[in-house]
Amino acid sequence: MRKKCLLIFTLITIFFTHIASAQNGSLIGKLIDEKGVAIGYANIALLKATDTTFVTGVLSSKEGSFVLKTPAAGSYILRFSAIGFSETKTAAFDVAADFNKDFGTVILKQETKTLQEVSVTALRPTITQLADRMVVNVEGTAMAASSNAFTALSKSPGVFIDQDGNIQLNGRAGVTVMLNGKLTYLSARDLRTMLEGMSAENIKNIEIITNPSAKYDAEGSSGILNINLKKYDRSGMNGSLYSGYTYNGKQHGYTAGGNINYNNGAWNTFLNLDFAHRVGGREATFTRVFYGTNQTTYFDQIATGNFMAEGPPTIRLGVDYNLNSNHSIGVMGYFNTNTLEADFLTNTFIGNTPKQPFQYIDADNYTHNTYTNGTANLHYQGKLDTFGTTLSSDLDFVKITNRGYSNYYNYFTDLNNNQNTTDFLYTNLPNGFDIYSGKIDFVHPITKSHKMEAGVKASHVVSDNDSRFYFNNNGLVLDPLRTNHFNYKENIYAAYVNYNGTLSKRFTLQAGLRAEQTKSTGISYTTGRVDERDYLDFFPSLFLQQKVNDNYGINYSYSRRLSRPNYGNLNPFKAYRDPYTWYEGNPYLRPQYTNVFSLAQTFKKVYSLTLSYQRTKDVMAEIPILDVDNSTTIYTTGNVNDGHSASLSGVGPLKISKKWDSQNTILLAYNKFSMQSNNGQLENDQLFYMFQSNHTIQLPKDIRMELNLLYRGPAASGLYHMAAMHRVDIAFKKSFLNKKIDLSINANDLFKGFRFYWTTDINGNINEFDQYFRFRSIGATIRYNFSKGKKINVKQRNSSVDEVNRT
């Protein structure tokens, strides 16, 4: 039935596309370079002459020719662009009915760039493949509307986010998240909270950097995800207002907000406000089988979770001031606070024979938490000479607090005699982080094709977690075995040097070395335990780019990186879930180190094929510890001894019709993990494959349709086996009143296939869970855009703070 519906939908779309294109009049021409060679696959964009608004576009053919359908009456210009060539525009021309125009031969002049770009282009570019990263363009897409930044990130090629908010890239854990080039200083849970409160329509693009250079912090063994927010490029007053609604089948969510930018000469000021009434939940089953010495125990649990979070609007405010044409300073502040109300309700049956339980537990958990994140940044950027020598610096301060409590109501029933007992518990969990960071970056061109980069950075982190656990059966009584006060301090000092230059007409080299000194102290005031660490590491990186010919290039790369333990994972505190399940921190947790080798090939500047190998030492992963005799599972984060991953990934466009483009990503990887435990040698390996296809379709009536298809095969993560999963998302967008109003409608996970089914098998003992997190939803957003002023160049900040990702 699904296949029939998809076939009918495809035929209808192709029919309307054909009808829409059958109109009279055309704009034609041919693109060549200064030597008279045709320029294929270049971008030709039709813009309104009045405000350069994008109307439509097309790619030139292999022979350099192009044909555009004549637009509605009005005044227009054509813009021509191609990788390696300077942008060229025509003079304005007026269009009437049945208008035809031959622009003849258009010559594009070459421009010199140190690193060659490879663009994968469509009706509106979705993916851009650069020499050292992939850029996913989010701005203006239909999928971005009615969506938040967290959802946009989770839909990026190769990105997977598990049920706890931990991020994997191409099947590998250890990913660092940055916002406008600045690390976010957040745990997986707090990062999710922040991104879910941010509209995806405020995002310009997401950079996927799988093999960062020495310029970046060494943190992030599997790569970096950098979320770049929009910056207005016009003088005067510009901005937008929006309102949205979502429904996931059980809960209603709302969003509203706006942003405004004012530029007047040397001053540039922006303000973003985002309000969100976030909702979500899950339905789950947990199954465990414990093969004890004298008996087997079967644990079957059904769970339902719900949450609602909202607070005052998130505020992001910034001011940049140009001291003169070469020097600028700026300040930026971010503040977010929200209150979470959540429940996790479970029904558990325990017995020694399948489906014949002797005990029933009704466990109801209720949590209240207030999260606050305040961030401040002071930035300087300057040009020191006419050769392009630059100096930039950043000072950052971040303060994060969580103030919350939880009630656990456990009701026990002995099914043999129907005797009932209760056990009520209470926790108070205040925790927070203060993070200070400063860095300086220096860039000096040696010649026109050679440059050196260098920089230093220092950071100081203080984390305080005072977790109090109480019995609550006859008033609050402190439980000393599950109470812990933990303080953590860490200093990191880093320096790097990086060279970038052209070796010959065919080879470009980038090589760098980064050094990081880490000093930390963890103190458990409850137990008196003190853990001190002091280690110096070096992280080399090497990139060699080879231009074989005009249509084929090869990039060779190597880098060494690490992932330090999450601050909370080092805390030996026990996080309670039910009488037979809890999480416990690990003060012995070690950082993991990764060596990454890759070979990337580009074809015709639009297709890429990458072969990579990653070896990780002391892989950090969630490990279930089974107390077989007591039917208890303790989850902790531990070091899996070794991890190996070999992968082959491809990215490329496929043009289905004149108004139907697709961007496609395919990944084939083999992952293997091994660990020596008290249960013997444990191994987990899997051949993993993933396919993602993003479609952009221009329908009649100027309606833009987007369709995202994702399939993930079985995978291995630490000691877990992950079952296959899939999702289908669809969105429509229509603009009104000369693009001042945008209306978007989307639907996510149409077939409810993005389900988490994970299992472990440790010496025959089974631990599996099947969870669905209500990804299936519908939503609508309306946005009003206003703009007044001329286009300007906006300076981009490029600061990097690493420690937030581990809070």
Automatic annotation (TrEMBL):
Record-annotated Outer membrane protein beta-barrel domain positions: 383-784
Signal peptide extent: 1-22
Keyword terms: Cell outer membrane, Membrane, Receptor, Signal
Keyword Membrane: yes
UniProt-recorded Gene Ontology molecular function terms: carbohydrate binding
Matching Pfam families: CarboxypepD_reg, OMP_b-brl_3
Localization: Cell outer membrane
InterPro entries: Beta-barrel_TonB_sf, Carb-bd-like_fold, OMP_b-brl_3, Plug_dom_sf
GO cellular component, one term: cell outer membrane
PANTHER family: PLUG DOMAIN-CONTAINING PROTEIN, TONB-DEPENDENT RECEPTOR-LIKE BETA-BARREL DOMAIN-CONTAINING PROTEIN
Record-given protein name: TonB-dependent receptor
